[in-house]
UniProtKB/TrEMBL annotation:
It comes from the Bacteria. It comes from Pseudarthrobacter polychromogenes. Belongs to the drug/metabolite transporter (DMT) superfamily. Small multidrug resistance (SMR) (TC 2.A.7.1) family. This is Cation transporter. Keywords: Cell membrane, Membrane, Transmembrane, Transmembrane helix, Transport. The chain crosses the membrane at residues 29-48, 55-78, 84-103.
Length: 118
């Protein structure tokens, strides 16, 4: 369930960000902006309530949000999408993967057993 909530947070944030650009030409999109960002934070709060760590949840939310926004802005608004930008997006995703993989706790070592001598 937490992953579905996180997907909702990402998609609503991307929708709000893209709508912000669209609102420059059509102010009615400001309604979508407000609703999208509000929904995004509500979904993110739900993710945290489900137990996903803040660093992991926020990292994935931000990285996928940036990635989708860059790609969709190029597709929908004709914004630039250069090789350097793509390398940057890949680095953001790689960094978040490192945070996610590093967030898992190592299993605790068993305590050493005492040897009883008589």
């Amino acid at each position: 369930m937490k992953w579905i909530l996180l997907a909702g947070a990402i998609l609503s944030e991307v929708t709000a960000s893209l709508s912000l650009k669209a609102a420059l030409d059509n102010p009615a999109f400001f309604i979508v902006v407000v609703l999208g960002y509000s929904a995004s934070f509500a979904f993110l709060a739900g993710v945290l309530r489900k137990g996903l760590g803040l660093g992991v949840a926020y990292g994935i939310w931000a990285a996928l949000g940036v990635t989708l926004t860059v790609l969709l802005a190029a597709l929908l608004f004709g914004e630039a999408l250069t090789p350097v930008m793509m390398v940057g997006v890949a680095m953001v995703i790689g960094g978040v993967l490192c945070v996610e993989l590093g967030s898992h706790k190592e299993p605790a070592a068993e305590p050493a057993k005492e040897v009883v001598r008589s």
